[in-house]
Amino acid sequence: MTRLPWVDCSADLPDLVERWGFSGSYDSVKRYAKKLRKRNPEWFERLPTSPGREAQVDFGLAPCLVLKDSKYKRPYVFKMTLVA
Q: Which residues does residue 73 pair with via DSSP β-bridges, in sequence order?
């Protein structure tokens, strides 16, 4: 059974029936896939590059509050880290 992270469990069910004679329901496949996802987090692959050629970028709202115009607001944060 080929398992791609973006493929839904319903795509795997016909493969299970055809190859292995699986007689269970779609819900049982979903429950099993849910357990596997908890045990095996998604994999990632490092891509070798020269220093400074790529960067990791994070953007979002900061957890702290800043006083602006007599009101407390959550500031936006942008962080860029060059790959060493």
A: 66
The pTM for the full model equals 0.35
List the structure tokens of 51: 């220093």
Q: Give the helix/strand (H/E) hosting 11.
A: helix 9-20
Spacing of C-alpha 29 from chain mean position? 20
- pLDDT tens per residue, range 40-52: 566 677 778 787 7
Distances, alpha carbon 26 to alpha carbons 9, 65, 75, in Å: 8, 47, 45
Do the beta carbons of residue 42 and residue 4 sit within 8 Å? no
Start-to-end CA distance of the chain, whole Å, equals 38
Per DSSP, the residues of 26-72 read HHHHHHHHHHHHHHSPPP-------TTS-EEEEEEE-SS-EEETTEE
